[in-house]
Amino acid sequence: MKRWVLVLLLPLHLLSQESYFNCEDITPQDYRVSYDISKSYYWDVSGGEILVDGGNSITVKWPDSIGTYIISVRTVKFGCYGDTSYHEVLVEECPYIRLFIPTSFTPNEDGHNDVFFIKGKEANDIEHMVIYNRWGTKVLESNTNIPWSGENSPDGIYVVAVFFNNKKFTKSITLVR
Q1: What is the C-alpha separation between 87 and 13, in angstroms, rounded?
Q2: Stated pTM of the model
Q3: N or C: which end of the chain has fewer CB within 10 A?
Q4: What DSSP letter does each residue of 113-175 carry, written as one string?
Q5: Backbone CA torsion sign across 10, 11, 12, 14
Q6: Are 43 and 51 in contact (CB under 8 A)?
C-alpha cells in the first residue's frame, strides 16, 4: 500500500508596494516573511543592496535613484520549490528643491560658519547665483555655487537669488561678524 503525502505551501505575505522620495538618503528597510524551520529562504533584490540576511528576514539599502525595484523571496521545503512572493518599491522624484540655503553666517575666522555656501544634493546644479545687499547692489554673481566669505561687506541682511531648473528661489541671509 502506497501513501501519498501532500504538502500545501501557502503564499508568503509581503506588502505589495511602498514608495519613497529621493529627497535624502533612504534609511535601510527591514522585510520579513513567516518563519518555518523546514524551509530555506532565497531573497533577490533588484537595484538595492541586502545588508543583513536573516533567513526569513532581510535589511535592504535602497538607492536614491528614481525607479521601481523588486524584492522577491522564494522558499524551498524538503528539496522542492515552494512559494514565491514579490514586493515592489518605488523611488520617486523629490517633490521639492533639494538645496539647503543657510540663513546666516559668521565670517569671524573661528572655523564655524565662516563662509556662506549652499549645500544639498543638487547644489552643484545651480545655474546662476546672485547676492544683493540691502540697497539692491550686487555683491556676488556666479554661474555656479561658490562660497562667499563676506569680504568687504558689512554686517547686515542680504538676499541670495538662486536659479535652478529654470526656477528662481530667493532667501534672506544675515552676515554677523
Answers
A1: 9
A2: 0.53
A3: N
A4: S-SB--BSTTGGG--EEEEE-TTS-EEEEESS---B--TT--SEEEEEEEEETTEEEEEEEEE
A5: negative
A6: no
User: Is 71 part of a structural domain of the chain?
Assistant: yes
pLDDT class of 92 with cuts at 50, 70, 90: confident
Closest CA to 148 of 105, 100, 111, 99: 105
Chain position carrying cell 545588508 = 51
What is the domain extent for residue 109?
A: 104-175
Measured at the CA of 162, the angle between CA 161 and CA 165, to 5 degrees, comes to 145
Does 6 fall in a domain? no
The backbone region for 175, taken as left when phi is positive above 0, alpha when psi lies in -120 to 50, beta otherwise, is beta
Alpha-carbon torsion angle 109, 111, 115, 117, nearest 10: 180
pLDDT digit string, tens, across residues 18-44? 888 877 778 899 998 888 889 999 999
Does a structural domain hold residue 77? yes
